[in-house]
Amino acid sequence: MTGSLISTLEGRYYTDQGIFAQEQASIFEKMWFCAVRSSDLANPGDFRTVQVGRESVLIARDRNGGLNAFLNVCRHRGARICVDEAGSVKRAFQCPYHAWTYALDGKLIAAPNLTSMPDVDRVEYGLTKVHLREWLGYAWVCLADEPPSFEDDVLHAVTERLGSLDAIDGYEIDQLSVGKRIVYDVKANWKLIIENFMECYHCATIHPELTEVLPEFADGYAAQYYVGHGAEFGDEIKGFTVDGGEGFGKLAALEEDRDRKYYAITIKPQVFVNLVPDHVILHRMYPVAVDRTIVECDWLYAKEVVDTGRDVSRSVELFHRVNEQDFEACERCQPAMASRAYARGGVLVPSEHHIGGFHEWLVGKLDSAD
Ligand code: FES
Ligand code: FE
């Protein structure tokens, strides 16, 4: 039996500032990062700021309807352009320090006395652009000069899990509306949250409502364990709601065989997607400190469900409870990561062995850091 047990990462991986800084540099600032829901920035001038690795990134909708991402740093003397998390500007961003003004596409358009400084090139001294790509109705950004392939880094996670990329199309995630968003401030390292999401060994212990809806979770095998496998609703269960009662009609373009099934996908390094017949739950993690992670969770429904004000509370309540149960478990582990008892790490039981793959991936990323 002991031969089939493998070790986790050592405790220091969850507490060491140096390792966290390395992760920021070689993972969050190198890979594609799911930053904002595109529909949150509906009109020209709407913006949102997010922390990606060690940088603040400003994402805004321009006058042509496109989204752009920039480093949130004034090119004059480096002041933060926007300190608010979200908001809207009329025509341009103006730095609060000396009033350099940038168009919504980042170009420098005005600066007091700039006419007397002909050398300042307005494109060259525009806001520093960050790569941006939209997918699933979210803006994904990448801080690398040469971004990795979106196909290899992001789309591959879906193919690997669902067996094909088409399998996610039926949910039409980009067309869905946000029915509810809850932001969780979790006092735990981001890897504890990923590891927790990847396994279901804990489901029987801490998720009574979820195991009622998805009885196979009580056996501890995560839906993510087998390619293409969806966890089946229990016989008495009518919908993915807190009491197993009726949800909404299945999403219009979804194949019949996905009705009554739950699928989960981890898109490294910071996104979890949960697919059920009538809605999608998408988590984005923002690791802000070695022991603190902000998690934004969106519950996405068919547009008419949200537009007609249908009551989504019973379906929201199910995964909200799951989130609270999971994050409480992660917060329970975080302080113990610094204990001598965990200096050499812990143990992965057989149903958690795929977490070993995540650890190998992580160590590989840190080893290949510049
Ligand atoms: Fe922004 Fe001077 S630092 S205008
Ligand atoms: Fe869980």
UniProtKB/TrEMBL annotation:
<feature type="domain" description="Rieske">
    <location>
        <begin position="32"/>
        <end position="141"/>
    </location>
</feature>
<dbReference type="InterPro" id="IPR015879">
    <property type="entry name" value="Ring_hydroxy_dOase_asu_C_dom"/>
</dbReference>
<dbReference type="InterPro" id="IPR017941">
    <property type="entry name" value="Rieske_2Fe-2S"/>
</dbReference>
<keyword id="KW-0411">Iron-sulfur</keyword>
<dbReference type="Pfam" id="PF00848">
    <property type="entry name" value="Ring_hydroxyl_A"/>
</dbReference>
<keyword id="KW-0560">Oxidoreductase</keyword>
<dbReference type="Pfam" id="PF00355">
    <property type="entry name" value="Rieske"/>
</dbReference>
<dbReference type="InterPro" id="IPR036922">
    <property type="entry name" value="Rieske_2Fe-2S_sf"/>
</dbReference>
<dbReference type="InterPro" id="IPR001663">
    <property type="entry name" value="Rng_hydr_dOase-A"/>
</dbReference>
<keyword id="KW-0408">Iron</keyword>
<keyword id="KW-0001">2Fe-2S</keyword>
<keyword id="KW-0479">Metal-binding</keyword>
<protein>
    <submittedName>
        <fullName>(2Fe-2S) ferredoxin</fullName>
    </submittedName>
</protein>
